[in-house]
Amino acid sequence: MKDYKLAEAEEKFADIIWANEPISSPELVKICEKEMNWKKSTTYTVLKKLCQKGIFQNENALVSAKLSKEEFYGMQSRKYVEDVFAGSLPKFLTAFCGGRKLSPKEIEEMKKFIEENA
């Protein structure tokens, strides 16, 4: 699995793209200048890096996602479970719940999820 870990500034930048896509690269530069105090060169450098990671694409000065925000964070979550819990979803859920009781609604949602994905 590809490593899609992002630095804090890269995550904020990615959120800007996801919130505004498709967006022209000049418009992205303006937003990043205003919201992140970045110069044009910084915006293009980080954009190029995230395009190389396969998260975004910049074609004909139009920036769009190759991975949705949900797909990206889903991949990160799966990688975390693989790395920390040897890929064991039950071990992850046990640690995540931390000994607290699940609500009846949470139990029903989990049952539904298991039935749909079994």
Provide a descriptive summary of the structure in words:
It is a single chain. The chain has 118 residues and is mainly α. The chain has helices at 8-20, 25-36, 40-52, 69-85, 89-97, 104-117, and strands spanning 23-24, 56-59, 62-65. A hairpin with a 2-residue loop joins strand 2 and strand 3 (62-65). It starts with 7 loop residues before the first helix and ends with a helix.
Structure described in brief:
The protein is mainly alpha-helical and 118 residues long. The protein has 6 helices and 3 strands; from the N terminus they run αβααββααα. Strands 1-3-2 form a 3-stranded antiparallel beta sheet.
Key structural traits:
three-stranded antiparallel β-sheet; 118 residues; 66% helix; mainly alpha
The largest sheet is: 3 strands, antiparallel
> Could you tell me the radius of gyration in angstroms?
18 Å
- Determine the fraction of residues in helical runs and give it as a percent range: 55-70%
What shape does the CA trace take?
A: elongated
Record field, number of beta strands: 3
- Quick check: average pLDDT? 92
What is the helix tally? 6
Percent of residues in β-strands:
5-15%
Task: Report the end-to-end length measured between terminal Cα atoms.
Answer: 23 Å
Structural class: mainly alpha
Order of helices and strands: HEHHEEHHH
Poorly predicted residue ranges:
none
Spatial strand sequence of the major β-sheet: 1-3-2
